[in-house]
Amino acid sequence: MLWRRFRNKYHLIGTYCEKCKTGFYPPREVCPECRRGGKIVEKQFSNYGEIVTYTVVSAPPAGFEKGAPYALAIVKMDDNGPNVVGQVVDCDDEKLGMGLRVETTFRKIYEDGKEGIVQYGLKFMPITHENL
Amino acid sequence: MNTGIVGYGAYVPRFRIKVETIAEVWGKDGEAIRRGLLIDEKAVPNYDEDTATISVHAALNALRRAKIDVKDIGAIYVGSESHPYAVKPTSTIVGEAIGASNDYTAADLEFACKAGTAGFQMVMGLVDSKMIKYGLAVGADTAQGAPGNALEYSAAGGGAAFIVGNKKNEMIAKVDETYSFSSDTPDFWRRNLAKYPSHGGRFTGEPAYFRHVKNGTEGLLKKMGADINDFDHVVFHMPNGKFPLSMAKKFGVPMEKMKSGFVVQKVGNTYSGCAVLGLAAVLDVAKAGERILVTSYGSGAGSDSFAFTVSDNVDEKRNLAKTTQMYIDNKSYVSYPTYAKYRGKIC
Ligand SMILES: [Zn+2]
């Protein structure tokens, strides 16, 4: 059930292997490197990061048309956090690029038609004021 | 009464549409409308923003300033006339997104533009009676005016959140008094399932806005034995720029006492998020010891009036989150078709 995962959807809470110091989001229960030798703990990662790479989606899947074209990026979170895939919003086209500093923003992800549930979660937006 | 604001936070979406841009679409004189309403532009939420997401951002900013354990929040009330669901609370979405415990009471409130201040009074009561340690009250809206309607020039998106507590050393501003004035007045309404609101035209002025804001404010002053000249900053609900300024004129409040909370010119009317956004903007600049008067207005109709005294904490705490002005300055203009797409006016 999705609602059981709200904690992971609404917050960058994933898992972390203390042995090889690798973060996972979405959370993983086993470290692919250390396998049974790893030590997995739950961790809240930094909400700030930097775009590693991105792509612009102009032919989105059903239910995501309203935002098109939109940017989808891989973001490396600060403090040795994981790489997280997410949509980038509130960003001017000319600003979008590798190395852009971004932070998480709570947004609507998907609406199940006009009568279904509204799914919320995290996207990314450019940092306007560092540390605020 | 021993309660105060220990944390406050604002949120204004990034997109703006100019009043002139809207006027052009309907063949109206944009310059005349802009001068008539005293609104230059209004804030437009992105297609993936709604009252819940605006409330979450404002609440997170309030938490940064409050510096409390979020698990100590015992009540969450979100006031809005644009809750995403007719049945299913916005307040619990906010609770989950800010990392609150499950040990809190919550409800969504609706009273046209004053549901945010109504929630503020509710958490004040719960804190003052020691039923809870801290309470979170949010006023937020993604207000809509029907295409071509006069409301389309002012109806905007935004909001503000307040964490109320009773520890003096944590307060940014102490609540000195509150008073409300209510009456059954059908000046503005939206029936269940109707997409856009209806209003009584000229009827929205004298018997509605002015009567309630005046009585709310006078009632507060009388209750506390104060004079309006005792206050350094005054915020009256801003359905447009003209109404609060003519109210100020009637009370003899000079423009320099109105300007710190006068956000309507660059943001528009954020409905339940309006008077509270004005208060947040005042707290961004107010000095310790200064006194603030806020009177909200909600059609239907009622006014909640508050008197605050700013505490010494204000200088340190205000810099812990983005100010209202930072949100106002971070903007990007959209065209009418983009605005219509974002706000679901087409499709
Ligand atoms: Zn490992």
Structure overview:
The complex is a heterodimer of chains A (132) and B (347). Chain A is mainly β. Chain A folds into two domains: 1-45, no CATH class; 47-132, OB fold (Dihydrolipoamide Acetyltransferase, E2P) (Beta Barrel). Chain A has one helix and eight strands. Chain A has one helix at residues 6-10; strands at residues 13-17, 22-24, 40-44, 48-57, 70-77, 83-88, 101-111, 118-126. In chain A, the strands form two sheets. In chain A, strands 6-5-4-7-8 form a five-stranded antiparallel sheet. A three-stranded antiparallel sheet of chain A has the order 2-1-3. In chain A, a hairpin with a 4-residue loop joins strand 1 (13-17) and strand 2 (22-24). Chain A starts with 5 loop residues before the first helix and ends in a 6-residue tail after the last strand. The model of chain A has no long low-confidence stretch (mean pLDDT 91). Helices cover 34% and strands 23% of the residues of chain B. Chain B folds into two domains: 4-171 and 316-343, Peroxisomal Thiolase, Chain A, domain 1 (3-Layer(aba) Sandwich), CATH 3.40.47; 173-314, Thiolase/Chalcone synthase (Peroxisomal Thiolase, Chain A, domain 1, 3-Layer(aba) Sandwich), CATH 3.40.47.10. In chain B, the strands form three sheets. Chain B has a nine-stranded mixed sheet, sandwiched between helices. A three-stranded mixed sheet of chain B has the order 3-2-14. With 347 residues, chain B is α/β, with parallel strands linked by helices. In chain B, helix 3 (51-66) crosses helix 4 (90-97). The radius of gyration of chain B is 18 Å and the shape is globular. In chain B, strand 12 (291-295) and strand 13 form a beta hairpin. The longest helix of chain B has 20 residues, at 205-224. Chain A binds chain B through residues 6-7, 10-11, 66-67, 89-90, 92, 105-109, 118, 120, 123, 128-129, 132, and chain B through 14, 46-50, 52-53, 56-57, 60, 64, 84-85, 93, 96-97, 99, 320-322, 326, 330, 332, 341. The complex binds zinc ion (ZN).
